[in-house]
Amino acid sequence: MMRLVRAIVRPSQSMRLVAGLAALTLLVLLFVLGILSAGRGWLPGNSDKLVHFVYYGSLAGLFWIALGGRGAALWLAVLLASGIGVMDELVQSVTPGRDPSVMDWFADVAGAVTVVGTLQVLRHLTGRGAPPQLDAR
């Protein structure tokens, strides 16, 4: 399990490329499905906020990995995901059958900050080296 965490929070060039392609795929799906209104009306009440939280958190996490997970990656990943959230809400304002919502955008930002913050903490914790091994003698 720790190897998987390290591979994610200390991404290789190939992992960064895969993350970038996955983020691009999510973006294409967002705008194609959004324009087609495929995501509207299938969730009860305000549960769409959970979808926003998870989607934009995933998008920001993929951006963070694609950017290498260090330095400005933290802020840039959150900024990119949040900016795309704003653009999505603006597109909804001119798409028939769709309704823009500031609360949706708040869920987008909350998801992005939560995922990127968690990745950053995991990166910090894995940077301390492996936990000491107990001698089994």
Helix/strand structural class: mainly alpha
Strand portion: under 5%
How large is the radius of gyration? 17 Å
How far apart lie the N and C ends? 25 Å
The count of domains is 1
* Envelope shape: elongated
- Sheet having the most strands: none
Question: Poorly predicted ranges (pLDDT <50, ≥5 residues)?
Answer: 130-135
Question: What share of the residues lie within helices?
Answer: over 70%
Helical segment count: 5
User: Strand tally, please?
Assistant: 0
Helix-strand string: HHHHH
Average pLDDT across residues?
Answer: 86
Q: Would you write up a description of this structure?
A:
The chain is mainly α. The protein has one domain (2-126). Helix content is 70%, strand content 0%. The protein contains 5 helices and no strands. It has helices spanning 2-9, 13-35, 48-66, 73-93, 102-126. α4 packs antiparallel against α5. The chain starts with a helix and ends in an 11-residue tail after the last helix. Residues 130-135 have low confidence and may be disordered.
List the keywords.
mainly alpha, 5 helices, 0% strand
Topology overview:
Blueprint: H1 2-9, H2 13-35, H3 48-66, H4 73-93, H5 102-126
Helix pairs in contact: 1-5, 2-3, 3-4, 3-5, 4-5
Describe this structure in a few short sentences:
This protein is mainly α and 137 residues long. The chain is built from 5 helices and no strands.
